């Protein structure tokens, strides 16, 4: 008679603990961004996406007039990849006269096309995937991993490059040191939808 209620008493907290563990696991699952991404297809970027980010970033320390000057008209933007294109076929569509632009470009310390993405690894992937587009042109890697900035500065100063592919941080550093001039740049491509191992897009990274 003594053991019976004791056994009943012990079984209750075990059941309660099991239900608590399940509840915690359920709550953790809801917080994962991967679950959200699986249910939502990536959307092509639109001009408003970039404009909204600029406004959010500069909104607190810029005047109304300065914010107005930061706005880019829709005519500054080319159509985004509708996600049915490969990278090469997309570039061919937005830049049909690439061969002519490539032949006419002879300025050092500059590129005709600048591609910005979130990492060195992604930069290498994009360089490989644009083979069908780039043709007989020179591509320079503009990221920090395994490449010193002095080396990139020397390359830009001595040679002619048509396409630059790299990360915002290294590109910014090169521009600030007058090693990269953007006067000859006709196209700037933002790798908008790609996500890193932490499932962040380039625009989700605070430093960017």
From TrEMBL:
Identify one Gene Ontology CC term for this UniProt entry.
Answer: 90S preribosome
Name of one Pfam family that matches: CMS1
Q: Which domain of life is it from?
A: Eukaryota
Q: Where is this region: Disordered?
A: 19-44
Name used for this protein in its record = CMS1 protein
Compositionally skewed regions (Basic residues) per UniProt: 23-32
The regions listed as transmembrane in this protein's record are none
Q: Which InterPro entries match?
A: Cms1, P-loop_NTPase
């Amino acid at each position: 008679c003594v053991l019976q209620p004791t056994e009943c008493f012990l079984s209750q907290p075990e059941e309660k603990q099991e239900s608590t563990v399940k509840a915690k696991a359920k709550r953790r699952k809801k917080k994962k961004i991967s679950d959200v991404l699986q249910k939502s297809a990536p959307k092509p970027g639109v001009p408003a996406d970039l404009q909204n980010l600029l406004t959010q970033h500069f909104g607190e320390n810029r005047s109304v007039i300065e914010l107005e000057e930061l706005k880019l008209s829709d005519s500054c933007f080319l159509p985004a990849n509708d996600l049915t294109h490969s990278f090469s076929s997309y570039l061919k569509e937005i830049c049909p006269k690439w061969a002519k632009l490539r032949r006419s470009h002879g300025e050092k310390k500059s590129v005709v096309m600048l591609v910005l993405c979130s990492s060195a690894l992604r930069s290498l992937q994009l360089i490989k995937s644009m083979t069908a587009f780039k043709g007989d042109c020179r591509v320079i890697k503009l990221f920090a991993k395994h490449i010193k900035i002095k080396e990139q500065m020397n390359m830009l100063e001595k040679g002619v490059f048509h396409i630059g592919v790299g990360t915002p941080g290294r590109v910014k550093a090169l521009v600030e040191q007058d090693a990269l001039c953007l006067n000859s740049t006709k196209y700037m491509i933002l790798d908008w939808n790609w996500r890193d191992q932490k499932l962040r897009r380039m625009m989700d990274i605070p430093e960017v």
